[in-house]
Structure formats: structure tokens, C-alpha cells
Amino acid sequence: MKIAITANGPGEFAGWVRPLVAALRARDPAVEIHVLCVPDDYATGSESTYISALFPGLHAYPPSAFVRFALGRDVPGLPARIDRVQYLGGDVGHAARVHARLGGVASSYKFSRKRYAATFARVFAVDAANERQLLGWGTPAERIRIVGNLAIDGALGEAAGAYGDPPSDAADDGIVFFPGSRKHEIANIFPLFVRTALNLRRRLPSVPIAFAGSPFVDDVTLRDALQRGGANPLAYGERADLVDGAVVARGRRFPLVRAAMGAAARARLAVTIPGTKVIELAALGVPALVCTPLNAPELVVIGGPLQYIGKLPVIGAPLKRSAVMAVTRRFRYFAQPNIDAGREIDPEIFGTLLPSEVARVAAERWADAPWCRSTGEELRALYAPQAGAAERMAAALLEAVPA
Question: What are phi and psi of 140, to 5 degrees?
Fold first, then answer.
């Protein structure tokens, strides 16, 4: 069987593509998988290299190849016909385009639109709330199948070393920072969290503190961002360096861990920005202080037209800044576990964030060991029923294709 997968950024590749491909190969080692990385502001450009190295024999195509494909040109290695097309991130229209040209049975995950109601023979849903969203987008009820959250399997797999990562004790009973992996996050959030870590080191001198380093961001890019210390003065960043696998600032060394879930599973607390990682940490039973910095709203990446409006000269930045602030006022929570639970489990702070304030809250939470244990158990229980989503999806995708 030949399966084509469309996906975009680091969160989708680590949390969705990785566990699904592993489950597909476990069920059928002969399955032929083609992963098309679609153009997207969320992407780093390293996704195709990463996934092809992780799964030898898998065919991965960078965004430039997808552009050629979308323009009707041939792409070396990509077959003329495919059996299945699976959306796993980016614009769902890209998966529809692959289906229109290569045929096969098309399916989506979590997202769809009214215009694609007849395109996707199956839409895999995360949970009942996601099912209601899909129904609202015009997806026929009989085409929806609830499978769970793929990110849960991704986190559990990484923590268990399923993707070949060595174990790490860098944050044993300590604190691990997750600054993100997108370009603006590496440039601004990482330096902000470095200064926060320095503040924490003064408050908690003997507590292990580590940084999660994305496998999609190379050392050169990260070192450059650290040495600049934040492109925007409002980011309150700290200049640092990357030396022998550690972030070094003001003589302090903080280990950089690429297989972050393995280290996080042994930590007492995480400090992170919103995103897939918050769900992954919850699955491991690790409470997180979730930070939504609005120090420079114009730098935030937003899907859709607003992202491009922000690039207009002179007027783009203030327009986007106003739009981001308006959007944030509509949300009660930014952390997905809190959204799913309908109440605050993971503590959240947002707005113009000062490193000293983030460090104060993190230190107080870490010092409350009973709270960390009980919150971790509550988070783990919240997502435990969704484990196994990759197996359920793989089984459905490998079903015989109707002639």
C-alpha cells in the first residue's frame, strides 16, 4: 500500500507524523510512505530531513518540492498514483490537492472545511468536542471516527526511547524549559527563558534546570539567536551561548536536551509556551507553568491572512499587534489541558512577561511538591483514555482500499 501524508511544522511532525508512521510500519513493514512537507510559516525547513533520517526508506519531500507538485510538475520519487492521502497538518487544501492529482482515498485528522465535505472519506477526530467541530464544518457524521490525540502517543513514545533517543537525567526532579521551535520563538522566547532560568538559579541554587532543544533547530541557528539575546528589546532576553550541548549565560550552564520528553518525564515542573508540548507534558504527568508572552504581539505567528498583513511595510506591525490583542481577549485559557478540562489545572500567566515574575511563579510551584504530584496525576488521567490513537488510525488506514 502507498500512503501520502501532508504535514507542516515541528509540532505536527513530532506529535502526529512520528507516532503514526511508527504505528503504520509496526503493522505493515512493507507500507510505502510519502511525506509531503507543505509551505507554512510554522515550519522550520528541517522537517523532511528529520523524518527521513528517523525512518529510513521513508520518502520525504521539502516544501519546494510540494510547490513544484502543486504547479503540476513532476516530483522525482513521488508515484503517479497513491492508495491513501492523509492530512496531518498545514492547510487541508494541500491534502485535497494531493488527492485530486494522485487519487486514492483521502482522510483528514482534526480539521476539515465545508468545501471538503465530499473530499475526505474519513475524518479522524481527537475527541467528542472535536467531533462537534467537524459536524459544524459540514463533515457527515458517518465519516467521523474518534481515535484520540496522536500527540499523546508521540510523547509517550519519546519518553520511552521509542525513537532511538537516549535517556536523560538533566532535569531530575527539577525544571525544564520549553521555549518553542518556530523562528520567532527561537529568536525571542528562548532568550526570555534564559533570563528566567538565571533568576530561577538564584532562587533555587541546587535544583536541576534544563532547556528543551528542538531537533528541528540546528545549533548554528540556536547559537545565533542566543548570542543576539532577543531581536526585540521588549522580549527582555538575555545573551547566551551554546557550548558543548549546554546553554551558557553569565557563567551558568543549563543542559540542552534534544529528546526533551525523556528529560521532562523525570522533571517536577515544566515552563513552556502554549502548544502541542503542553498536551505532551500532561500525558507524562508533568505540570507546566504555561506562559503566553505578549511583549511583542506583532511577532506572534498566526494562521491565515493576518500573518501576511503583518508583513506589510509601516502599517503591518501595528495592524497585526491590534489584531493579536483582540484575539487573545476572546480566550479564557491558552493551555489545551485547561481548555479540555474547562478549568485551570496548569497555571497560566500571559501579557507582558518579566523574567523575574515568571521565575517567582515557577519557583513557588516547584517548591510545592504535593501540588506538583497531584496536578501531574490529574493531567495524566485527563489524557490517558486517548492513548493508542496512532494504532487506531494506522489500522484504519491499512484497511483494504475499495477497488
Answer: -60, 135
Q: Name the strand (E) or helix (H) holding 107.
A: strand 105-109
Cα–Cα distance list, 163 to 1, 19, 200, 264, 276 (Å): 23, 9, 32, 16, 18
Query: Phi first, then psi: what are they for 293, rounded to 5°?
Result: -75, 125
Which domains, and CATH codes, for the chain? 2-148+388-397 (3.40.50.2000), 175-385 (3.40.50.2000)
Mapped onto helix, strand or coil, the DSSP state of residue 377 is: helix
Predicted model pTM: 0.89
Straight-line distance from the first to the last Cα atom of the chain, in angstroms, rounded to the nearest whole number:
13
Q: What is the dihedral of CA 8, 12, 13, 18, to 10 degrees?
A: -140
- Could you give the angle at which helices 63-70 and 92-102 cross, rounded to 10 degrees? 60
Q: What is the pLDDT along the chain (403 residues), one digit of tens a residue?
A: 999 999 999 999 999 999 999 999 999 999 999 999 999 887 889 999 999 999 999 999 999 999 999 999 999 999 999 999 999 999 999 999 999 999 999 999 999 999 999 999 999 999 999 999 999 999 999 999 999 999 999 999 999 999 998 889 999 999 999 999 988 889 889 999 999 999 999 999 999 999 999 999 999 999 999 999 865 666 688 999 999 999 999 999 999 999 899 999 999 999 999 999 999 999 999 999 999 988 666 666 655 555 556 566 756 666 666 666 666 667 789 899 999 999 999 999 988 899 999 999 999 999 999 999 999 999 999 999 999 999 999 999 999 765 4
Which position has the grid cell 539575546?
A: 229
Q: What is the DSSP string of 236-256?
A: -----EEETTEEEETTEEEEE
Beta-carbon count within 10 A of 137 CB? 16
